[in-house]
Amino acid sequence: MTGDRAPGPGDVAVVACAQTAHRRRTDDLSEVEMLMPVLHEVLESTGLTTADIGFTCSGSSDYLAGRPFSFTMALDGVGAWPPIAESHVEMDGAWALYEAWVKILAGEADTALVYAYGTSSSGSVRDVLTRQLDPYYVAPLWPDAVALAALQAQALLDAGHTDEPALAAVAARSREAAVGNPHAQLRGARPQGAYVVRPLRTGDCPPVGDGAVAVVLAAGDRARDLCARPAWIRGMDHRAEAHSLGVRDLTDSPSTRLAAEHAGAFTRPVDTAELHAPFTSQEVVLRRALRLDDRVDVNPSGGPLAANPVMATGLVRVAEAAARVHRGESRRALAHATSGPCLQQNLVAVLEGESRA
User: Fold this and answer.
1) Which of 36, 52, 258, 315 could be joined to 116 by an S-S link, Cβ 3.0–4.6 Å?
2) pLDDT digit string, tens, across residues 298-342
3) Is the CB of residue 46 less than 8 Å from the CB of residue 16?
C-alpha cells in the first residue's frame, strides 16, 4: 500500500469484471482453458498485468472437479511465476472476494484479482451437493439439493408466503431479464414444465452449466485511476445458519438479514439487488429477509435461474451488480451469495458509485 494508512471499509472498489458465456457443458475445455480468456479480459480492461496484482484469491470445489487440489492447476491460467501472493477458498468465489477485501483493508495489498469457476456438468450436481449435509443424520438419507429446496418451497406455501403461480412469475421475470445478458445460459420465457420435486417444477430450478468469472479490486485513488466509475464496496458481511435443518425455520433467513445489517444495506435503500437464489422459492425468502420491495430491480441479469455455474454464481452476482454501477445504471446495489442447503450460509455486499463534480 502507498500512503500511511490502510484503506477504510468504503475505500475499496470493484474496478473490472469479466465472465464466460455460461454453457451447459464444457467438455472441450479444461479449467485453465475456460479461465484464461476471462483472466486476460479482466486484466486488459484495467491495463494491469499479473505482476501488478498484490493478491490473488480463487473459489472452487474439488468435489465438482472430481479430483483433489484442482485449483492448483487452475493457477496456470493466472501465471504463478514469478511467485505471487495467492489463496483459495473451497467456497463460492464471493467468499474469495471477501478474503481479498479484508487483505486490502489490512493494508497488505492495494489491488487484488479474484476469480471462481464451476463445472457442474462433470457429474450429478444434485447429488454432489449432498456432501454439504450433516454427515451423521441427514447425508446418509441422500436428500438431493432439489428435494431440500422443495421442502423449503412447501414450507413457504404452507405459511402463505407464496403460491405456485407467484413462483412461476419469478421464473418468467428472471428469464425474460436474461434476454439482454450475453453471458446467460437460458434466455426468454419458458414453460414451467413438469414437477421435479413437488412443488418445484423445471422452471423453478436452475440450469446445470459451467462457467467462470473474475473481478479486480483496488483501493482508493488506485481504483479511480483504473476505472471511470468504481463500484465502491461500502460494506460486506457473511453469516451462517445452524447446520441442522431441523432447528431452522426454512421460511426465513436470519443470517442473510444479519449480514445485510452489518454490511449497511438497511441504512439507505438500494435500487438493484443481484440475489443468489437458485430456486424461485429462495428469492421469496431473500426478498423478505432483505426488505426488498417492488421498487428494487431484482436480478436484472436473470440471476441463477438463467445461469448457475456452482461455486461461481455468487461472485457473478457481485460482478453483475458492480457492472451496473460501472455503467451508471445503478447508484446503490446489493449483491448476495449463498452456500449450503436451503440458504445456510449467506454473504451480502453493498456497492455504490460516486458522484463527480
Assistant:
1) 315
2) 999 999 999 999 999 999 999 999 999 999 999 999 999 999 999
3) yes
